[in-house]
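Hi R.,

Quick one: here's the ROK family protein sequence you asked about.
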Amino acid sequence: MQLIHFPYTKSNNRLLVLDYIRRNENCSRAEIAKAFGFSRSTVSLLVEKLLQNNMVKEMGLGASTAEGGRKGTNLAFNYQSYSVIGVDVTNSSVLCVLTDLAGQVLKKVSLPPVLDVSLCAQKIVNFYQECNHNESPILGIGVSVPSIVDHTKSIVIDAPSLGWKSVNFKAELKKYIPIPIFINNDVDSAALGEHWIGKGASTDHFFYLSIGTGIGSAIISDGRLVPGFQYSAGEIGYFVDKEDLDHDNTYKFGKFGSFEHKVIHLLQEYKEKRSLEKDLVIDVSIALANVISLLNPERVIIGGQKSNQLMEIMDSIRTYIKRFSPLQTTIEKASLNHKASSIGVISYVIEKSFYHILVEKGGIPIGK
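And here's the predicted structure, written out as tokens:
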């Protein structure tokens, strides 16, 4: 499991200590004091608050110190202290998942698609209310959507497959849900999921390509998602080539990009007639070769509903990529499948919400 990055500064001592305990299982108060140069009394006060909030648990006595001093009590991160809800909204389903802080699924419900904004929000509210009787308080809710998302205003800018434009989905949920709510792009969320507990857990540098109703991508660099200016990095569906210029293909608001439209069409032809395979291989190969040359990822991870179709011709794609780019990379299929976005948006919630709880709220649980 890849550790989620907590956003902290040196003044956020409680978050610093919690993150250290999470990264160093069965550590002592003395080790924490030494790591940060804190006094023993300061560490004791910080740990006491974390124990009160059930975020940390004591694990018994550790080893004696090198000087033969008294054994300290070991501390461990409590992955059951909170639960988190992740929701993946698509035009084929609304997948709702409840997990603990380690990503272990506690409850999962797949609902029929709901394209009406208010009705979709109500389905998520119903799931929240069902889960709110859970033993662990709910830390927050994350919703992934197939759209560029303005994170400063929580606006779903343009989701063609849902028919949503300029929708403040967070505001719809906030009418009924009092805990933190975060909206994130579906492909970004899927990449975060793979980085947390999937195929990307062992690397901090990978490119995630999603093939489904449309095409999207996300970039993980130095262990972090690259959002881009205006949170739009990874919009690979709008890649263009000379053919687009020749045919005067231009982007129109609310429409799929030209590369996206082309590849989805070729995939459909390949699936139904086993035709146009070479065209599909070349188009995808050129796109990935350019990405690999530009970003130098350790891996390219292929996910989404139609990833299996693309993996059928991956040997041919790899051959072309070796011709087009001198850089070496591993290309493999994602492991979380349909759960990737709902699990990934949970990791996004965890990263954002711990700062809210430990710093802004002073360590007060805000779940139930």
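The chain has twelve helices and 15 strands.

Cheers,
M.
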